[in-house]
Design brief:
Strand order of the largest sheet: 1-2-8-3-6
Oligomer: single chain
Mean pLDDT: 78
Largest sheet: 5 strands, antiparallel
Strand content: 15-25%
Structural class: alpha+beta
Low-confidence stretches: 156-200
Shape: elongated
Radius of gyration: 22 Å
Number of helices: 3
C-alpha cells in the first residue's frame, strides 16, 4: 500500500503551496508562546528590571501589530488592586519570585513559569505576598488602552463569620447569611480557562 507522500508527494517540497508563516502572533496560543519565548530569553529582560519602593515598576518591553509586552517588578506587599483590562485579552507569566492572583474568589500562587490567560471582562488582583521581590511579563492584545479599577468589587472576598446563634440555624432560615457572597457571574468558574484558551 502506498503512503500519502508516495501518492501526493511531500507538501513541504512545494513551499509555494504552504500558507505563509505569520510574522506576529495571532492566536491566544501564539501569544502564550511569545510570553514563554521572552521569559526563556533572560538576557532580553533581566538587565532592564528595576524596583520602586513606592509602586510597582513597569517597562514596555515590546510592541507589535495589535499587541504590547510589559515587564513588571513587585516588591513584597505591592499589589495591582482589583482591575480589568478593558477590551484587551492577556497573558501573565511569572519570571522570578512568587505572585498571588486573586480572581473568582480563589487565590492562586504563581511561581516562575506559571501563566494565566484571560479575556476581556476578567477582573483580578495580583499581589506579591512573598518575602522576596518578583518579576512578571504581561502580553496584552490588543494593546492595553484602559485598566479600570474595581476596588468596590474585590476579586476575592472572605465570608464574614455568622454570629454564634446564627451558626446553629439552617441556612434557609437565615437568608441574610448568604448576602456576603459576591456575584460570581462576573468571573469564569473556578478551574476554567478564558474562552478560546487552554490555560488553567
Amino acid at each position: 500500500m502506498l503512503s500519502d507522500i508516495q501518492i501526493g508527494g511531500d507538501p513541504l517540497a512545494f513551499p509555494h503551496l504552504l500558507p505563509p508563516a505569520p510574522a506576529h502572533p495571532v492566536t491566544v496560543a501564539d501569544f502564550a508562546g511569545l510570553a514563554r519565548a521572552l521569559a526563556a530569553d533572560r538576557d532580553a529582560w533581566a538587565l532592564l528590571v528595576d524596583y520602586d519602593p513606592v509602586t510597582r515598576w513597569y517597562h514596555r518591553l515590546r510592541t507589535g501589530p495589535g499587541y504590547e509586552v510589559w515587564l513588571l517588578s513587585w516588591l513584597p506587599g505591592q499589589r495591582s488592586g482589583a482591575h480589568g483590562h478593558g477590551p484587551s485579552s492577556g497573558v501573565l507569566t511569572v519570571l522570578e519570585g512568587e505572585l498571588t492572583e486573586r480572581a473568582n474568589h480563589t487565590p492562586r500562587t504563581l511561581t516562575p513559569g506559571a501563566q494565566r490567560v484571560f479575556a476581556p471582562g476578567y477582573v483580578h488582583e495580583v499581589v506579591n505576598d512573598a518575602l522576596t521581590p518578583a518579576v512578571s511579563l504581561h502580553v496584552y492584545f490588543p494593546a492595553l488602552t484602559e485598566m479600570p479599577m474595581h476596588e468596590d468589587r474585590p476579586p476575592t472576598e472572605q465570608p464574614r463569620a455568622a454570629p454564634p446563634a446564627a451558626r446553629t440555624r439552617p441556612p434557609t432560615a437565615e437568608p441574610g447569611l448568604q448576602d456576603w457572597a459576591p456575584c460570581a457571574s462576573l468571573y469564569w468558574p473556578a478551574g476554567s480557562a478564558a474562552p478560546g484558551s487552554s490555560a488553567a
